[in-house]
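step=encode ok
step=design start
structure_in=
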């Protein structure tokens, strides 16, 4: 059971080790998408600022992984 998870984490860490800025850039893109959704009536997505929260979370995790790897 833990063998596939271990293999996935090994592949993911080796992928992100060579692309350290990928997750912070993805977080910035999500924040920009949230800014654009403020001007487009998108229902609960724009009122809850979903992409803003996801973008900040992805960027922080990206910075922490880039520092660790």
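sequence_out=
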């Amino acid at each position: 059971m833990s063998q596939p998870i271990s293999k996935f984490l090994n592949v993911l860490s080796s992928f992100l080790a060579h692309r350290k800025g990928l997750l912070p850039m993805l977080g910035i893109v999500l924040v920009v998408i949230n800014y654009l959704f403020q001007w487009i009536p998108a229902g609960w997505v724009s009122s809850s600022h979903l992409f803003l929260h996801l973008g900040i979370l992805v960027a922080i995790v990206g910075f922490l992984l880039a520092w660790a790897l």
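step=design ok
step=annotate ok -> The chain has a mean pLDDT of 87.
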